Amino acid sequence: LLFNKHIVIYHTVHVLILCLSKKFDRQMYHYGHFSQDFLWGVSSSAYQIEGGWNAEGKGPSVWDTFTQTPGSGIPDNVTGDIACDSYNKLKEDLYMLQALKVKSYRFSLSWSRIFPNGRRESLNQKGVDYYNRLINGLLARKITPMVTIYHWDLPQALQDIGGWQNVQMIDIFNDYCDFCFAIFGDRVKFWMTMNDPQGLAWLGYGTGQIPPNMEEPGTAPYEVAHNLIKAHATAYHTYDKTYRASQGGMVSIALNAEWVEPKDINVPRDLVAADRAMQFHLGWFAHPIFKNGDYPEALKAQVLVKSELQGLKTSRLPSFTEEEKNLVKGTADMFCVNHYTSRIVTHVTGAILPPSYQNDRDYTEEDMTDQPTTAIELTRAVSFGMRRLLNWIKEEYGDPDIYITENSVSTPMEWAYDDIDRVFLYKTYIDEALKAYELDGIKVKGYATYLMDSFQFFHGYQLGFGLHYIDFNNIHRPRIPKFSAHLYYNIMKDNGFSLPDDEKMLYGEFKKDFIWSSATASYQELSGDEVHHLRLLDQVFICPAVCAVQTIFYLFIMIFFGVKNIKLT
User: Fold this and answer.
1) Does residue 525 lie within any of the structural domains?
2) Looking at the chain, which terminus has fewer C-beta neighbours within 10 angstroms, N or C?
3) How far apart are CA 544 and CA 550, in angstroms?
4) pLDDT (tens digit per residue) in 176-193
């Protein structure tokens, strides 16, 4: 391959070191606390909770179009037309947040609620008013708004001109971000330009599972990712040049990341495959933004080799110009990561045809079968992966401030309130983040989990992820706290995990007349070591048990060795 061998060796050794951490260490529970300014919070996204799909001037998004089309493939043909009805239940949502006593609330803006056709010319003031009420309500309750500008719900009008495959989207998105910075930035200081662009590029344009439901796995995901990265970077610079000095906020991008480990650490190809998996998934977007403005060498080399074998003259992976590299590099003030699970990878030689991002990777993924299952396949609850991922981010991307912006576990909706699996996840995943913070020196600054059950994209309403149960068959959509909400409340209150009383060391002294002694039994024999220990005793209590002869023998031995105070009991 064409990339530097030293880079491969460094990354491979890094994977190996993280994988070799002792099993005892990962199973040992850690008690401690995060920093006093740690940002405990909850999260949501517009299409998943708001409803009001056409209320007060809102335009259709690609998700409205997709879910309202018969045969969408979503279980029970449900839609997000009403969802949690948060557009009409702002007071209830604010009450929930206040009751939890969270420090932050991450939510996303509905692009088509603000600009119904995606452009400034179509401004819908009613939509702006809704978000102003939400932001003001949060601040009145001393809750920090963490705003995602775009969370997959592209206005349908923009998809009609090609969506993210159209390079014009870079400027269109920048104008939308500019408006949001200008209108909300006096109160919002924590921005994420977009959420999980990797998921959008692959699931939306590669597999077709989510809107815009395109299946062009060999080219479209790379083209879309290229435009998404440049759109993010352009918006970052707009904030940097126009708003940062007066508003003093921070801007980043929320990236999804799973931890992976080689199936066999003694097989070099599996070790390299594990690093390649991290670069193909997280590094695809993080490497250009947090490192050098360009894609990881592993990603570039893999796609180039496969493209050449397919008879193409150039790589299917677009390249950045030097000017674009300078535009993209360093366009994040903090590292925002969504994390759910960890997997095992094995090296394979992927098929050459058809061209596909998945075939380009040359590895397969499988479950960690010794870890707890969840309601979603290939998404086991692997808590130790959290700590290892955070270590990876620190080493790979220059020790940034890290905010965990999504983390939860899926449970069947029929479980309703008694979500013991989620309780277990919080107690273990958050503890692994605490280990990373206190033991590894990683700058973990915040944590957010799902506020309430919601529309789970291609899973519909079959699964619950939130702290609050929503009965989607009830037109009033009541919000009911689950068992996990009570646990999370206490974790936040304690700012981590305080040492329980039964784990604390107890120091003190017995009463003056406390009788210190040793004991034996008639059937046991007195060894040489025991005889030696008798010399050290001032007082011995003897239980004659059943053998008088042996008792007399013990008395003789102790008198011989000078034990002064002997009592029979």
Assistant:
1) no
2) C
3) 8
4) 999 999 999 999 999 999
